[in-house]
Amino acid sequence: MPVSVRRRALVLLLALGAALALAGAAYAGNGGFAPATPHSPNASGINDSYKLIALFTGIIFVIVEGALIWFIFRYRNRGRPRTAEGPQIYAHTRLELMWTAAPVLILAVIAAFVFYKLPGIKNVPAAKAQGGPLVIRVEAHQFYWQFTYPDGATSIDELHVPANRVVRVDIHSEDVDHSWWVPELGGKFDAIPGVTNHTWFKANRMGTYRGQCGEFCGVFHAEMTARVVVESDAAYRSYLASVRDPLILGGQEWRGVCAKCHGLSGRGGYGPNIAVNAVLVEHAGLLRILEHGQNQLRPVSSYMPPVGRGWTDAQVKALEAYLKTRVYKGAPSGG
Amino acid sequence: MAARAEAPPRYREDWRRGRVASWVTTVDHKRIGILYMVTSLVFFGAGGLLALVIRAQLATPDEHFITRNAYNELFTIHGTTMIFLFIVPFWAGLANFVVPLMIGARDMAFPRLNAASYWFFLFGGAGMFLSFFASGGAAKAGWYSYPPLSEKFYSPGTGQDIWILSLHLVAISSVLGAINFLCTIHNMRAAGMSWMRIPLFVWAVEIYSILLLLAIPVISTALTFLLLDRQVGTHFFDPSNGGSAVLYQHLFWFFGHPEVYIIILPAMGVLSEVIPVFSRKPIFGYKAIAFSTVAIGFYSMLVWAHHMFSVGLPNFLNVFFMLSSMVIAVPTGVKIFNWIATTWRGNLILDTPMLWALGFLCVFTIGGLSGIFLAAFPVDWQVTDTYYVVAHMHYVMFGGGVFGVFAALFYWWPKIFGRLLDERLGKMQFWLVFIGFNLTFFPQHMLGLMGMPRRNFTYSHHGLWETYNLMSSIGSGIMAIGFLVFAANVVKTSRSGPRAGNDPWIADTLEWYTTSPPPEHNFDRVPYVTSARPLRDLRRRLAQADAVG
Hints:
heterodimer; A: 335 residues; alpha+beta; Helix Hairpins; Immunoglobulin-like; Cytochrome Bc1 Complex, Chain D, domain 2; 7 helices; B: 549 residues; Cytochrome C Oxidase, Chain A; 68% helix
């Protein structure tokens, strides 16, 4: 193939590739070219920082890769013998100083912009008009999220908050490291035993946002998801009242805490069949396994996390009520 | 006098000449280097197979190709293997082979210690893979094994303990190797080879060794504490008894970030050898590249907590580690600009080693730029522990490390074995790996930004998640074919490849002065070194002598 034809084919191929990439991006909306569409001021600040960095790195990318590809084409061998040397240029101090200083300047601009945005991302607004932020205690457990509201009510894997309200999240862990993350409402903050972390959000749109554990925490890490339901003030208040019902809270506990491993009917999944296990309706035994979990290698390797570590009496009672009425199928007969 | 001249008994020599025994008992730096490289490439193959299974599991949503626990074992051992058993020991092997030759030395400073560090590495690596048969399976708390998850209660079974002990062996191997490299480079250089005349790969190995010496004892400490927690009942990392889980993270990343540069600096050193030789020009800015290597080594010790931005460190620490992480981009940028400047107006010979080097420049730039997003800690809060980091990390470790490894293999293969690898197969491999690599890892940036967390056994999203994941899995298959082509290349050329001669590339450094493969004593005579390009000086002197004669 003559060189000119080959070059034209290559240009065509590159243009085609670029067009495909652009079409893909357009089709996909943001398609993974920026973090999730923000619905809280802190997430917006992060997105703005991302976009500024993307602009600068994009320019550097085009310059560096452009120079690289251009030089490869322009100075390729073209049949010259291996012994033919290029000009013996050893260094150029001014040029090298320039390309040391330029990145420093670009990085300074990026850092300055990030620091300018930082207070809006990090600091919890005082929200004096609303009587201060709504404080939610988030407890991470293997493998569920527990939310405690200011009035002491709790819910599992599902957090309800009013729209446009500043919510401060206090993050704890009762066992191993986890990370609290709802992409549309801001970044990740780790839940580490012995450490309390804080973040906040102010959701500007009603709806359900998906959150998930961001730090590998064990075998059901992928199932450690949360839903943040942003709703009207009235709906929020009625939700708080509803989780006071032991059967509702107990149902959340069953689905979030037990059923991920033992199956929705309790007949076993990853974990063993417990629907017929009398411990479910025996207070002391249930309390022991909730608080301490189980960890043995023999006769069969079995591990259960201490899922109920730190639970209140109300939580245990709710679970007991639910187990008795909805899950326990009685001891196996004929045994 | 006569009694003293009597030869010692020769029986030991005889059994040492056996085909296997000669390799087991060798203290020759070249043979140890080959052992190191072959072993680490076997681990590369094994770690790659684990990765292929991971990609098969993630190819489609709600896949149950393997169990959850198996998945967690796979990504743990994949990461551990690639870092500890493939790339760091590969550089130790390559440096073993070429550093003494490049500086005109007879061997490494401590040949027996050298053999010891290889055997520590082999047994550590073998232990790691045998841990799949441990009670409770292999370690499954990630290659970083954060406590409390890696503590006895949350990770029962002996896999985690074997993981710790295997890493201890590998760590000893690395420290012994590093001491050996430093003593060799400092004391055994040829006459005339001042610090500004040593090859840039040797500069890279110098800093690689210093970083190993500084970083490895810290990981050994952390692992020892963890082992004591698990086996003796101490509470170093157990918060419910007054320990600190965050302390482990500091210790781990104080090692973990220099480790990144331990991996990448030798690859950069390879580029600084390959690019000038195949551009038929001197390296642009020898001093800038050498000093930027030192600067990267220095700053790499000051950036560790950028792995911990979501831990909830005080704000001033986040700010400090953000700025230090950005600063380290500057000497890295200097290197990239200098390499590109080296190709300017050159006579670019696009043989396979050069393709790998240029491929490195192309993809490593992407890895470097995506790192700037991660250095800005508010942005890191969004993308850390997602596939964005998996993509970034592979663009650096694979796009930098593995591309560097294959640039080195194709460049020094003729010196090591005396025969050239097949160019056609080499180029085919390069393009398969280059395309497969980008197809595998580029979509992972998007997956991460769309919210796919790392280390998830499966996912339930459809649409673009599915598309990108499938692209990624297909790419991993294409890469695998590329590496099979390399195996075919080795088999094909091992008997029938063209003889290389001393200096097939018309290169600049001393290793090309001796025969291929070099004799046991390396050089009959080492020329006086007059610059960083002693062989080119020699060629010019010979040409002048011819012209006069």
